[in-house]
Amino acid sequence: MRTKRLKLHYGWAVLIMGTVAIFGALGLARFGYSMVLPAMQADLGMDNGEAGLLASIGLAGYLALAIVGGAWASRYGGRRVAAIGLIFAGAGMLFTGLSDDYFYIAIFGVITGVGSGAVNIAVMGLWPAWFSAKRRGMAAGIAVSGSSFGLIVTGFIVPRIMTAFGEKAWQICWIIFGSITLVLAVGSYIFLRDKPAEIGLEPIGQSNGTITASGMVSTNWKQVYFSAPVWFLGMVYTAFGFSYIIFMTFFVKYLVSNAGFTALAAGRLFMVMGGFSVLSGLIWGTISDSFGRPKTLMILYLIHSLAFSMFAVGTTSPYFVISAVLYGITAWSIPAIMSAACGDLLGPQLAPASLGFITLFFGIGQVLGPVAAGAMADVTGSFSQVFLLASTVSLVGAVGSAMLMKITAYQPKQPQNSPLNGG
User: Fold this and answer.
1) First CA to last CA across the chain, in angstroms?
2) CA separation (Å) from 393 to 58, 243, 253, 255?
């Protein structure tokens, strides 16, 4: 008697590789900067404003890919765009490690940012094709955990490299980060696929012979760039870009310079936050699949506001630990939900393009955040007011999410059971 073997859907392999790609593009490229910043700042003689500007320059590269990266992924496929993006991100980090001049580091930061933006948009745009409407929030939530592993890895290895190699250790860190990311570029090209139909499969969670893509299925670009719900979704996303990047960029710097933490202790708390964030996207993305995207977004923004305010007013370790845990359990949930919402609104074909478009708004917030924070910190002599600003902007995001419920609830082309409406 022959037993039927259970065959694992290839979509899970795509999801794993996509998560690892996010680890390289964001976990190392973006959040590695937070851990390396104090040593870079000391060695290069940067003030807070220059450090913030350097972060914003890199994020400007990310912003540059926001619109075109999504459109390219929709037209040429996320697999190619992600692999090329990882090459750019890896090369940018590698050459940053080989430089010791602010000007050249800024140039390589732009290259890293361009690559990171291409990877994130291309990878996160894959899930509406590979997963049904009731599973894509979960899938996006798993993928964003790549950033969490970046926090854990950098929080563990950077302080040890600093101890072993001294003032130039920050360059070794960037060389290691870049080399890892270049290897991931090869893996992404080998294992990623754009659509399940390419290998004779249906999306995960889709019943045979059914169509689960919600929203509009079309190649009409007007549905991306002239859609009121997409525009409003982007404006809500701006609040996350502005607030979270302030918190993440200056997290370690504030603990070491203002809160009396050693670099090793700050790295441990960075790791703790990363550990709690591993399941954040999965948990909240799954919740949004049934509870609704706007309602879930509102809750998340409120938690972020509380976390940032506690970090700002904290005077003892418990404040900073609670703040890190609060942020950790919600950290990457907002990008995951935004990715799923794009699929809800426009379907799998245009999901990468719409995600790229709303990432433009997110990117504007990211670019402005570090510059404003660094300048404010230089003027006030502390980052407390900076983190309070991030908290206030998160409250604005919560209000916008509440308004999003009203705007999306009456879209005539939106299916009744869409997670965007909480159905």
Assistant:
1) 44
2) 22, 6, 21, 22
Q: Which residue has the tokens 């200056």?
A: 250
Residue 399: what residue type?
V
Contact residues for 329 (Cβ-Cβ < 8 A; gap 6+): 276, 277, 280, 283, 303
User: What are the residue ranges in the chain where pLDDT is below 50?
Assistant: 1-4, 209-218, 409-417
pLDDT tens-digit map of 226-258: 888 889 999 999 999 999 999 998 999 899 888
For the chain, which domains are there?
10-194+212-421 (1.20.1250.20)
Residue-wise pLDDT tens digits, 185-219: 999 999 999 999 999 999 998 765 444 444 434 45
